Amino acid sequence: MPPLPAVDSASDEILRMQVELRRALAKPVAERNWIMVIDGRKCVGCQACVVACVAENVLPPGVTYRSVPEIEYGSYPDVKRYPMPTQCMQCDRPPCVPAANAMAPGAMAKRPDGIVAIDYGKFRGRAAFDAAARACPYRAIYYDDGRFFTQDSPAFQPYEAAPSHDWGRHWIRTPGRPNEAPAGGARKCHFCLHRLEAGLLPVCVTTCIGRALYFGDRGDGRSLVSELLAKNPRHVLRIRENRGTEPRVYYLTDDPAFIAGFHA
Ligand code: SF4
Ligand code: SF4
After folding, report:
1. Predicted confidence (pLDDT) per residue in 171-186, tens digit
2. What is the structure's pLDDT at 235?
3. Whose CA is nearest to atom 4 of ligand 1?
4. In the chain, which residues have pLDDT < 50?
5. What confidence score (pLDDT) does residue 1 get?
6. How far, in Å, CA of 186 to CA of 176, rounded?
7. What is the CATH number of domain 9-262?
8. Domains of the chain by residue range
């Protein structure tokens, strides 16, 4: 991969994270410790990350690797609304994995770098999907039923047959083949693994209008994500921490109520 320009890392967080990513990639996979930090104070709810994710991963109808719902809490007249970016949390104790594997052996696995992976060849069918979806406390896993956005329109659009790059392979979905992987199985966020391996940050991070998204190696004490968590210990939350899933997505907020609705 081409060398990155020298940067004053304090002045550009994206370039700093890019440099840190390359530093992490120089280590063995098992020594990379990927996490995401989301600064809830900076998200403006624009949905640009969602659109970028759909385009990057050529996602079909009904599948979205991330979403930014608006959370409302309080009672009139003291009501607040927050945009709440969410996605697969790449849990360290992921309940989806045993649930899926009980129905479809080998369907899911925890990678040594922390990403919870799907094997599209083994994760087949609705029954395995339903089991994993029921187990996931974050509604982060979706079923690809083989549909296309433009399949019933006057002209099928070629961009829907563009390749996606999930889990180290190239995939092309074909109309009329709803059981051909990745259709006919479960899909979810993979921290843009294909981009990471090419030395690029996840597309949501590079797209974010509010600069609310951070990604990096928690095993690197000098990384921006490590610094953010260390500097803001009283402002770090994880969604539904009480479920014991050990999510790898951390939220920064000044207002604990920001996340209250997600603790149930
Ligand atoms: S967020 Fe859900 S799908 Fe992702 S690893 Fe955790 S339990 Fe599994
Ligand atoms: S792009 Fe950034 S600011 Fe916009 S919704 Fe996504 S996380 Fe929030």
Report:
1. 999 999 999 999 999 9
2. 86
3. 88
4. 9-10
5. 61
6. 18
7. 3.30.70.20
8. 9-262
Q: Does the beta carbon of 95 sit less than 6 angstroms from any atom of ligand 1? A: yes
Beta carbon of 204 within 6 Å of any ligand 1 atom: no
DSSP codes joined into one string, 85-147: -EE----SS-THHHHHHHHSTTSEEE-TTSPEEE-TTT--SHHHHHHHHHH-TT---EEE-S-
Q: Which numbered ligand comes closest to the C-alpha of 99?
A: 1
- Kindly provide the b/e burial profile for residues 91-122, where b requires at least 16 CB atoms within 10 angstroms of the residue's own CB: beebbbbebbbebbeebbeebebbbbbbbbeb
Q: Tens digit of pLDDT for each residue in 90-117? A: 999 999 999 999 999 999 999 999 999 9
User: Which amino acid, one-letter code, is at 127?
Assistant: A
Strands 249-252 and 34-39: parallel
Percent of the chain exceeding pLDDT 90 equals 85
E runs forming strands in the chain: 34-39, 66-67, 70-75, 78-83, 86-87, 108-110, 116-118, 142-144, 185-187, 213-217, 236-237, 249-252
